[in-house]
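Dear V.,

Thank you for sending over the compound details. I've combined the ligand you provided, flavin-adenine dinucleotide, with the protein sequence from our construct and run the structure prediction for the complex. I'm sharing the raw inputs here so there's no ambiguity about protonation or stereochemistry in the SMILES, which I know was a concern on your side last time.
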Amino acid sequence: MNRRGFLQAVLGAGLTVALGGCGGTGSLPGGVASTVASETLWLALQKLLIGPLLRPGQVGYVTLATPSNLGFTNEPAAIAHCASVADVQACVRFAHTRGIPMVARSGGHSYAGYSNTVGLQIDVSRMTGVEYDPGSGLARLQGGARNANVYASLGAVGRTLTHGRCKSVGVAGLVLGGGIGFNMRRYGLTCDNLVDTEVVIASGDLLRCNAVENSDLFWACRGAGGGNFGIHTSFTFNTFPADAALTVFSISWLSDLDALLPTALTTLPTAQDGLGIKLSVTTLGILTLLGQLAGTPAELRAILDPLYQIATPDVEYIEVLPYWEGQEFLSDPGEPAYYHERSRYAYLPMPAAASVTILEFLRHFPGTSLGANWKFFLSGGAIDTVAPDQTAFVHRGATLISSIELDWSAYDDARRVAAAQDWLAAFHEAMRPYTSDECFVNFIDGSQTDYLQAYYGANLDRLRTVKRRYDPDNFFNYPQSIPV
Ligand SMILES: Cc1cc2nc3c(=O)[nH]c(=O)nc-3n(C[C@H](O)[C@H](O)[C@H](O)COP(=O)(O)OP(=O)(O)OC[C@H]3O[C@@H](n4cnc5c(N)ncnc54)[C@H](O)[C@@H]3O)c2cc1C
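Below is the predicted structure of the protein with flavin-adenine dinucleotide bound, written out as structure tokens.
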């Protein structure tokens, strides 16, 4: 079933649909389907675990099964709510030896629902411990920690790293796909802060990966995305002192977008590395700058002066706050929703013609109850001090990530969503002359063609070699996973 067919099925019939996840597909082969339906099977697994094994209908099951992207809701045969590394190992061995489809789930924010399965969901989301060592400045996070745990634990010790602003996103998915955040131009990507990780591979063995041990897998874990090689149970990061004072801002204009957008596209990429910024333009015609500057409000005003020359903002919030208070202001709860996002990396400053295209598409949006927006995240700075082949994350040297976000709700009928999806596809294609064909794997997109090349570029062959070494049976797989 194609995407439109799927949406029609979900929205038109109001169904809960099982969709392909890692190692799982919407419909299982007969033998596997009867295996996963067996109560005895799951009783046997529960006996091996400390954490609970939840089956449909049990308390807590729906909360754990519900992903961030509601378009991909499904019903796993069982959810192992792992309490320890040994639980993860037991689940992997159990599923591998019996050929049971499974997925790893941490924060559940895969854009394309790739932490969903109709088999076994190996859920590490209760493994959220964080230990900080003041001597080394290293923070060790358990595999299920979320941005919220980073906020709380590093906030308490006055440290930071490159984290996301959505508190419910899992650090596992974030770091494995690279990880962008408002600190990235200062401190690099989240994966650039990673110094060590532990991962349970298909055999059930726990491997330690760092610059010395299993360094090929460590290379791959920094940018190849989750779900490809094993289930990570810990991540150790370098940390940085949290600023005593940081300028945070949210500034919006409701008019003059035709002049503001091209100016922003040429001005902002020249700003110092202390600027972390997201620009968005909505279908309602609002242009917003959201971000932080390691600097003063006066320095921010100097960067933004070309925009202020065009028009005074309609909404302006600029404040100096201690780092973690500033992050609270910038944070987003990231509630489950219906959405589809499509990204492209841009390596050159976008010409004025790009702004015309962007604004034309936004003005001709066919409409959903929640609208759509185009945005960019400024890249560069410390990200580019690492070579494209030094980690699996290949998009070094890019100016920005361009992304189109389409949102809708259960109130939109299937025809409306389908028209909006067509608009999104046309918009994504229309951005091609101004961007590269590279896409961000953390904004994973089930409708992207040539996706392996788009996510990994020149690093793809090496990733295949790592895959063959650590997961020769392709046990860890999903519709866009790295093939053997
Ligand atoms: C609201 C929102 C805000 C976001 N903000 C940012 C942002 O600021 N910066 C950014 O870079 N990205 C951002 N993202 C994208 C996000 O980083 C990716 O979607 C990421 O994959 C989510 O990780 P997760 O653990 O929450 O998701 P999950 O759905 O649990 O996992 C994502 C993938 O990783 C696999 N996986 C999960 N846990 C593990 C594990 N322990 N070991 C191995 N594989 C695992 C899953 O099987 C799946 O394939 C955002 C996404 C959303 C929805």
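A first observation: The pocket of flavin-adenine dinucleotide is lined by residues 22, 68, 103-111, 114-115, 124, 143, 164-166, 169-170, 172-174, 176-177, 179-181, 226-227, 231-232, 334, 442, 478 (CB under 6 Å).

Warm regards,
I. M.
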